[in-house]
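pls design
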């Protein structure tokens, strides 16, 4: 898909981000952060990335990721949300993020947690090459460095550098 880009989020994007997050269509699928939490993530330069997904130059969604390289666990995609579903915008944005993570940042993997019942997201991730990942207890500690164990009713999916 052409026209999908990522740019760093700015405080001026907050109304779009929280409006999208709090939309009734999205509430069951995405965590809810306060304005202050989003602003802190936007302002923080180390270990956290907050991106606006644009489509044809207009805000279309957002992506939040944690840099877990110090723990040996690559990048963790904390949140990915797009306004218009089933148009390939989220898939394209995650592909762009993955390519940047591997080529520019030099990570060994990108991973995320997904809820068991969120089959739409699971299919998108699988099309991009993500596979279910169940690390052993010792390895799981590295992946929990971001404070993001999968939780009940969720599992990890990982895309390893090829």
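designed seq:
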């Amino acid at each position: 898909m052409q026209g999908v880009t990522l740019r760093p989020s700015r405080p001026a994007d907050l109304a779009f981000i929280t409006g999208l997050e709090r939309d009734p269509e999205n509430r069951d699928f995405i965590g809810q952060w306060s304005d202050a939490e989003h602003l802190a993530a936007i302002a923080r330069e180390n270990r956290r990335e907050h991106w606006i997904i644009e489509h044809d130059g207009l805000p279309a969604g957002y992506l939040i990721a944690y840099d877990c390289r110090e723990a040996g666990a690559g990048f963790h995609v904390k949140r990915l949300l797009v306004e218009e579903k089933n148009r390939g915008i989220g898939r394209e944005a995650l592909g762009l993020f993955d390519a940047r993570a591997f080529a520019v940042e030099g990570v060994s993997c990108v991973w995320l947690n997904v809820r068991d019942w969120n089959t739409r997201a699971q299919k998108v991730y699988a099309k991009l090459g993500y596979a279910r990942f169940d690390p052993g207890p010792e390895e799981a500690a590295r992946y929990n460095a971001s404070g993001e164990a999968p939780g009940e009713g969720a599992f990890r999916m990982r895309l390893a550098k090829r």
